[in-house]
Amino acid sequence: MRVLGIDPGLRRTGFGIIDVEGMRLGYVASGTIQVPADLPLAQRLKTILDNVREIIQAHHPTVSALEKVFVNTNPTSTLLLGQARGAAMCALADHHLDVHEYTALQIKKSVVGNGHAAKEQVQAMVQRLLNLNGLPSPDSADALACAICHAHVGALAAKLHAGGALSGRGGARLRGGRLSR
User: Do 100 and 150 contact (CB within 8 A), yes or no?
Assistant: First the structure.
């Protein structure tokens, strides 16, 4: 499975691609889409859309993971972030990729073991988990962490579905990355 993780932002959108074979994670690519702040909003969103499309065409991911928007104290910022996220999601949908969404808390908990980890901790764990020579940039690290989160949670969900544990009636189910009854 090849996972494309995306950390959406209107100024910088991080992306990270990993290959997953069993429990082994392999780094493929990562980077940051820089969106010029002087462009009108519609053009900024198109920049995100076009760049995510190019990334998909270049690397052929089989599934995607996207960080969920949190509700900010500033409603305007939250709305703009949601629009950036929507532009990325449209590019994923254009290529018929399944989109799995995770909160920042879920991602940090999955990668670092602490849902309130600092950005530097996320960068260091991503570097370690993927055997990178150096620290990835903060936006790339967040996107790679999102992909790693899906590699962990997605594999568990697939096994539970295959084994019938998530069949519904009276069985367990996966909610927010956690198994519940």
Answer: yes
Here the tokens at position 176 are: 């927010």
Q: pLDDT digits over 150-162, tens only?
A: 998 876 666 665 5
Long-range contacts of range 129-132, CB-CB < 8 Å, 24 or more positions apart? Answer: 129/25, 130/18, 130/25, 130/26, 130/27, 131/27, 132/27
Coil, strand, or helix at residue 69? coil
Predicted TM-score (pTM) of this structure: 0.85
Is residue 67 annotated as a catalytic residue, yes or no?
yes
- CA 131 vs. chain centroid, Å, equals 19
**Which amino acid makes up residue 124?**
A
Residue 107 vs residues 28, 134, 143, 176: alpha-carbon distances, Å: 19, 21, 10, 11
Active site residue 19: no
Is 139 considered catalytic here?
A: yes
- Count of Cβ atoms closer than 10 Å to residue 38 Cβ: 6
Selecting among 19, 38, 67, 142, the annotated active-site residue is 67
Tell me how far apart the alpha carbons of residues 115 and 137 are, in angstroms, rounded to a whole number: 20
